[in-house]
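1st attempt posting a full record on here, be nice pls
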Amino acid sequence: MEREPKEMSPEDITLEMVLKTFLVEAEENLSKMEELLITLETEPENDELFHTIFRMAHTLKGNASSLGFVQTAESAHVVEDLLQRLRNRTLPVHDRLISLLLQAVDYLRRIVIEETEAGTVSSAALNFFRRLPLAAVEGEEIPVDAPTQDRRKEPGRREGDRHFTNERTKTLRIDIDRLDRLLNLAGEVAIAQGRLGQLLEWKGRREDLLEAHQEANRLFIDLQEQVMKIRMVPVGPIFRPHLRTVRDVARAHGKSARLSLEGEEVEVDTTVIEHLKDPLVHMIRNALDHGIEPPDRRKALGKDPCGRLVLRAFHDAGSIVIQLEDDGAGLNRRRIIEKALSKGMIASAEGLSDEEVYRFIFEPGFSTAEAVTDLSGRGVGMDVVKRNIDALRGSISVESNEGKGTTITFRLPLTLAIIEGFAVGVGSETYILPLEAVTECVELPREESVHPNGDGVISLRGRPLPYLHLRSLFHLGGSPPRRQSVVVVNSGGKEAGLVVDLLHGEMQAVIKSLGKLFHGLPGISGSTILGDGRVALILDVPGLLREAVKRRPERIAG
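the predicted structure (as tokens):
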């Protein structure tokens, strides 16, 4: 006979909530300490940095002590004492000391998990903090055991990090003003729904019913927008851990590099954030291995011996753009082509643009590394980047200047749930274009005949605009109407036209996945359900633009 699960008492529930809060706050403090310690390495005269780091260690000690976590409190106290000496200027700041303090942060993470879960702490962690004060004075390194060495190999993948990440993904901090707005809207929606119900019951006038419906619809859209805003979180928390990653990985491989962050306050849907973690890891590792040169080589080239990476985020036309820029060696076009030829991916490199050549680095199993290392060489890192960005309905572009550096750009939707769309009709089908990608709509000139290959070029205010016939592209058949429209779309600086039969106008679309069977369909990124129950496909504008631009030279030559 199976035992029924024991019900948790109110005291147990309260303790569990307190522990979860402690774990989340501990990780926030430790992550911030980590970031500020790296900043302190370049700003050793900044007194405010000393004070802030000290306060965070003191907060962790106090929180742990109040919950009875003695080992965590005592270990944090050792770090606190060391930081006090730095504040008093009795101990100088140097790179070995910063490395020791970063190790201390790693061990504090480990102790927090061990003591909260098992009640005991490993001897390796306790031994580290016993040796820390003397090692800091003498400038010695303390050997690192396997759990903390993992930081250099795969940031955010240690046992402790996984635990902290799991706790964070279950919680989302919300501004109280947004909650108040939600509560007010819920009340207004209830009132509007009641009014509409009364009018229907009393068979009210058509004008009154329409007005009540429009008011309820306005409130519903406002409520929907507020819910989406609550899901928006800044990108800073997933950017900042890479400050440590860049420092440690570069040092472990005989290089020197620093990471600068821009646009940390830019907000994006929490689901998009989760999908960005792996691509960022692989991009940064790739930049450090293939891009940033060793210090002596950089010095010989007239560069700063310390390499520079910039990770930035910004909004552009309703999308979020993530860029990783480095000032390293850049992509070697010749070597990429040689590798593509040797793997049989192309028969000839003649006529290939830089964009087409650089796209090979995202192919599975493709690597120009001469040897397999713990950083790269297996050809799987950038493949993971492309798969994750494709899953987010995003696009990737690469700009590189050999000898000067590379910039990789992601363009992603702000949310994966709802988009503002522009509906168009071709035959009996309806398609949705993301509204932010639509620039304008013009009439297709009558003299512009339909070409057998379904594309063409028109003059738009004196400049050539390549276009595609959606009817031909999707093999819809049937005869087009006498009057057709060209929807001008733009993405990533590229512009093209899509020829359609009808313009239905703006609408809000709830995005539905097409499923694995239809994954990777060219020109299609998802689907939505229309008001009449029919399915409309959401078009992949970057993919369509690539197709239009690719066909353009052929059309002009013809």
